Every structure is written in C-alpha cells, then in structure tokens.
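REQUEST ID: PR-0412
SUBMITTED BY: lab tech R.K.
PRIORITY: routine
TASK: structure prediction, single protein chain
INPUT:
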Amino acid sequence: MSGSVLAHPRGRVLIPVQTRAPLDLRRWWGLAALVGLLPLFGETFAYVVDLPPVYALAKAWPLLTLPLAVLGVATVKAPGMKLVLLALAWMVGVTPLVSMATLGDSLGGALSGTIKLWSLAGVLSLSAVLAWLKPEARTLEQSVHILGFTTFALMGLIFLLTPPEAYLKGIEETKIFLWDEDRGARLNLPMFFAVLWVFLLNRRFWARPSLLPPLLIGAAFVLMLLIYKQRTQIAGAAGIVILAPVIQWGRRRGGWFGILIGLALVAAPFLIAVAGSHDTAASLGGSLTERQREYSAGIGFLNDQPLRWLIGAGGATRAGEVDLASVVGTGYFFTSDIGWVGVVFEYGVVGAALMLALHLVALRTGWRAAEGGSPLAWALFDYCLYLLLTSPVLSVVFAPGELATCLALMGALAVGAGTAGAAPRSSRAKN
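STATUS: complete
OUTPUT:
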C-alpha cells in the first residue's frame, strides 16, 4: 500500500466554516407590509379622532383600496365573496334610500351613514394583497404577535404618561381617553389585534404547552381590567379563552360545532333580555341603564310600522340632518350600543340575516383552515366566535373591517394548508 495514502494531509486541517443563512428580504418586506397594512384593513384607526391625519386615512382607506377590491373580485376566490357583495348591495345601495324615506334624511347624510360598511370590501382587497404577497403562515403569525404586543405595550405606556386632564375632553375630541362615574379613567384603545393576539397565545399554548403564553395572557387581562375596562369585551374574550380547548376537542365529535352555534344563537335573545332587566342594569351601572332605554326606544320605533322590521329604518350620522335620538323619542340613542337590535333598526331583518350569514361563513372558513393545525387559523376562528358571542350587545356593523380581515387571513391560511380559501381563480378545479 502506498505511503502517500496513509500520510497525514499537509498544511492546516480544514474545519467546516459555518455561514449565515442568507437574509430572506422578501419575507421581511412582507412582514413589514403586513404590520403596516393590517391595522388599516382591520379598522384600527377608524374611530380614533385623536389622530386627525390617521383618522382621515382610515376613513378613506376602503375607497383608496377599491381598485384592489375590484382586482380581488376578478382574480381571487375570497371567502364569502358573494355574501359580501350582496351585503354591500343591500346596506350601501338600498339602506340610504330607506333612510331618506323613513327618517327624512338628505342624500348626503344617508350616504355618509354607509361609510362604516365600506370596510367589508376589505375581504376582497386584502385577499388581493395577500395573493400578491404570498406570506407564509409564520409571517402572518409574526405580524399578529407584533401588533398585539404593541397594543398592550402602548396601553400601559399611555396610561402611565397621560395627565388627568386628558380624560376631561368631550367625545367630539377624543375616543381614547374616557371617563365615567362607574369606571373612572380608562383607555378605549382599538383592541382587534390585542384580543386576536390573546387568542393566538392561547392556541399556541394548547398546541405546545409552555410557561410564557399563560403569563402573557394573564398580563393582558390585567391590563384590560385595570385600563381598558370594557366589560362585554373582556368577558367575551375570557369566555373564548376558556372555550378554546373544548372547541378544539369537540371538532372530533360529529355535529358538536353545529350544536354549539345553535345554543349560542338560542341564548342570544335571553342574554339581551337579561342585559335589559332592571336588576342587571342597577348592578352594572349607568351605561347598561342607557342601553336598556335604547333597546326600548329602538324596538318601539320599529313596532310603529312592521315593515321597518323587514327593511330597517336607516341610520344617521352627524354629517346628516337627522338626529336619531329625536326621531325615536329619547335623549340618547346610538344603534352601535344595542347589538342586533341596532342592526335590524338600520338594515332590517334582511341586513341582519346577511351579516349573520357572513359571520357563520367566517366560522366555517376558520374551521376548515384550522384543519392543518395552525394556531393562527384557530385564533381567527376564535375571534369570529367572539364577535358572535358579544353581538347581543356590540353591533357587528360598528367595525366590520375586523370580520373582513379575519376572512381574508383565513383564506390565505387555507391556501397554504391546501384547503378551500382565497385561491387564485385560475387554480380552481372545474366542477
């Protein structure tokens, strides 16, 4: 055997050099785009009059992205697309005419009342954006982590740094710094991504138990209880956190999900009745007493002409010439305060049925998207269930961009999981 074969190699011994993986600029740019765009689609700033330029951009956003919505209709199979278009046709096309006929509002005032519905088109426009960005599931999750954590961090920081006089402004000047006798000073921050983040942490914990998620969830609820102080939202979020593992276990049982939704819908009228009872109102303070009056005034106005129950009476805003409180005969009346009664008041049973159907489609879409085990898909499903759970008190048309964003994100996750969702039309199999 040749000695050259056994000889030690001359020179220094070569050691494998560890090199860094190349930076995925496309993914990081996609994450930055999502963090910047999702709050606009999710109506984070739609009512924040404290920041006039951002508030104006948020109000104009659905119109600015209308070309994207048209592109979404043409090129993407967005979840619930037909229902969204039908709901917009009724609520934006028909309701203003009803408002003019029933309430005597001007054309401009009637049309201004539809602004809050435009964000429903975000299902289409955001689906088009996501189809172009093609973000991975982990990128979508990271965007929710960033936005949710940032919301809670800002909540604590703003509360600590805000002087007491900031809470003395009128509702025309601020929607964030609120004060009332029952709850004192509180911050009414937009909580869509904060609550969604809590649901995501909860789902990640049940998928892979560790200590950090429960600690973060606990801290989030402490901040909400001490600073946010919105009882319905906090109770609804806590209920979903508790129900989440039961729901996930129950998907293995045939028909369990349908039974759950059926029970929730049956319970909704009883929740409304309990919320409107004298004893409950007295125990929970003045805000519930006002809601009780609004329920009575709204139902009384609808009863005056039964046709109003079917097609609604229309809505009104400060930009119009009609004051709803004067119309219904009470000193205080906002349809956003009275849940489904408010939806029926504005859009009739027809509009309420369309919105309920859209929420049920969102639940079905999230249920299917979660087949791949994605914690974010489960969290989005949880948020849509949370919207239904709180809907007897909180109007589903107050910020419909939240539902629209959930639907679009579900569609993107479903595509990644290989199930039905926001898929390009060209990729659909022909029946």
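NOTES: The longest strand covers residues 177-180.
REVIEWED BY: pending
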